[in-house]
Design a protein that fits this description.
single chain; mainly beta; 6-stranded mixed β-sheet; 4-stranded antiparallel β-sheet; 0% helix; PapD-like_sf; Fimbria/pilus periplasmic chaperone
């Protein structure tokens, strides 16, 4: 089974599942280079009541099947031992915002490589003074964003290994399965897009995954692209796949691949 490495995020992330823990975070990803020593993350309480948030580091390892495994303590590639947070707990009124500052204190003779930890925002439960005695369960909802520092960073070397059209087992609609590899040891970040040539002879985007990262701990990944609503594959021609950088990699073309359409 191919490994999957998807890091999906939005400019703002809205916790709509629970009205008691609504939170807006921007940005949802922080990337340091050797010249940068500090960064800021803004959080906004979008609920209708006062909320308290705890800000801590969390160590996560990308899993071959997608998602993360939470580690109990930092590892050699963790960023948290050389990073400082301020403040570490905040209480916000409805609509109020707060800036979290991240400072990097790099040790001497730091080995070349990429260091990453995840900034975890925990919404602490408010005290319910009107609650009656008895069993009470308080859920601590949380959301984390990756924070990356690169020592002697190099441009990620991404390669398209294979691509194929597969059928969704549930809705029977076609998907595009793309196998990617990265061998440089530094994570990439950008958008993977699929294009076809339409009847007018122009390139038309039919699928895209934005905010896609390939992390160093997993050497290969299989990414599935769903077609946009209303889009269909033509009966013939090629699907042109492009992995293009974003943020610090804006303007970088990580690679492309031409997939023939066969029915």
């Amino acid at each position: 089974m191919f490994a999957k490495r998807l890091l999906c995020g939005l400019l703002f992330v809205f916790f709509s599942q629970y009205a008691t823990a609504n939170l807006l975070i921007s940005p949802t990803r922080v990337s340091f280079d050797e010249r940068q020593r500090s960064a800021k993350v803004t959080v906004i309480n979008s609920s209708e009541e006062y909320r308290t948030y705890r800000v801590v580091w969390s160590e996560k390892l990308a899993l071959p099947g997608g998602g993360y495994q939470t580690l109990s303590e930092p590892v050699t590639t963790s960023l948290s031992p050389m990073a400082r947070l301020s403040p570490k707990q905040i209480r916000l009124a409805p609509g109020e915002r707060q800036t979290i500052k991240i400072a990097i204190r790099k040790p001497k003779d730091l080995a070349k490589g990429e260091y990453r930890s995840h900034l975890l925002f925990q919404a602490l439960p408010n005290e319910d003074k009107a609650a009656k005695a008895g069993l009470k369960v308080n859920m601590i909802l949380s959301f984390s964003i990756p924070v990356v520092y690169r020592e002697q960073g190099e441009l990620p070397k991404v390669a398209f290994q294979t691509a194929e059209i597969v059928e969704d087992s549930v809705n029977k609609k076609p998907k595009i399965a793309v196998k990617l590899t990265e061998q440089q040891g530094f994570s990439s970040y950008g958008r993977l897009s699929a294009y076809v040539t339409n009847s007018a002879g122009k390139q038309e985007k039919i699928a895209e995954i934005g905010n896609l990262s390939l992390y160093p701990e997993i050497e290969q990944a299989t990414v599935l692209l769903d077609l946009f609503s209303g889009k269909q594959l033509p009966k013939q021609g090629n699907i042109e796949l492009k992995y293009q950088g974003a943020d610090e990699y804006e303007g970088v073309d990580f690679g492309s691949y031409s997939l023939p359409i066969r029915h």
